[in-house]
Each structure stands twice: as C-alpha cells, then as structure tokens.
Specification:
- The chain is elongated, with a radius of gyration of 32 Å.
- The longest helix is centred in the C-terminal third of the chain and has 65 residues, at about 90-154.
- The protein has a domain at about 25-120.
- Helix 1 runs antiparallel to helix 4 (about 90-154) and helix 2 (about 45-55) packs across helix 4 (about 90-154).
- It has 4 helices and no strands.
- It is about 80% helix and about 0% strand.
- With about 150 residues, the chain is mostly helical.
Length: about 150
C-alpha cells in the first residue's frame, strides 16, 4: 500500500529506453549549444576565408607563375635597367614575404573549417547512434513477432 504523501515509484526503464533518452537529451543539449555558439564571421574571418579560397585556386597559381616568369625574364634580358639582377634577391624577399603573410591566414581558415567538420562529425555520430538504437528496437520487435508466430503454430 502506498502512503498518501509518498511519491509513486517511477517505471523502470529498459537499457534501450535509457540509451534512447540519453541520446535524445544529449542531442537537444548539443543543438542548443551549437545555436548559442554560432555567430556570424567577422571581417577578418571572411577575408581569411576569401584569401584562402583565392590562393588555393588555379587562377592564382597560374598568375603567380606568369608574374614570376615576367620578373625573371625582365631582369635577365633588360639591358639598361635591371632592378633585381641574377641572384634575384629582391624577388626572393617578395616571395618569402608572400609566404609569411599567407601561411597564418590560411591556417586560421583551416582551423575554422576543422571546427565545422568536427561539429558535423559529432552530429553524424549522434544520428548514427539513434539509427542503431532504432534498428535494435525493430529487431527486438521482430523477435517478439517471430516468437508469437512460433507459439501460434504449436
């Protein structure tokens, strides 16, 4: 007999129901966190993403190759005014500065992309976990139906 002031005993959940509830609650919590953390990119982030996209294009690579060829050709074949003679020290300085400026910007963009990929992978994992639990549930139901059919045949 239950006492009037006593709370009713909660129904015992199966392992599957507990796992399903945990996944659902975790998913809601994660989605809320993602929405809170999601904020628009600032100017520097947009510029870094644009620069990374541009520097990684064939257009940039071909234009850089053309620029390098013209620079070298002009400094080898110009008779009167050579601003950067054969060892091309100024040219090496320009390319080194270009690489020194581009590298951290590209890394910033890649770090943001890696974060987005990590969030997608987490989301995919949660979806796969839910699908696995639902398949287990359907297999249990199928086993129950099979058992009922066996009992009817007997």
């Amino acid at each position: 007999m239950e006492k009037p002031n006593q709370k009713p005993q909660p129904k015992k959940l199966t392992k599957h129901e507990i796992a399903k509830k945990i996944v659902t609650e975790e998913e809601k919590k994660k989605v809320i966190e993602q929405i809170i953390k999601t904020k628009p990119r600032n100017f520097a982030q947009r510029a870094a993403d644009w620069l990374t996209k541009w520097v990684g294009s064939w257009t940039f690579i071909i234009l850089l190759f053309v620029f390098m060829t013209v620079w070298i050709w002009l400094n080898i074949y110009m008779v009167i005014y050579r601003w950067d003679p054969y060892p091309f020290i100024l040219f090496n300085l320009v390319l080194s500065c270009l690489a020194a400026v581009q590298a951290p910007i590209i890394l910033m963009s890649q770090n943001r992309q890696a974060e987005r990929d990590r969030v997608r992978a987490e989301h995919d994992y949660r979806i796969n976990k839910k699908a696995e639990l639902e398949i287990e549930d359907m297999q249990k139901d199928l086993e129950t139906i099979k058992q009922m059919i066996r009992d009817i045949r007997k």
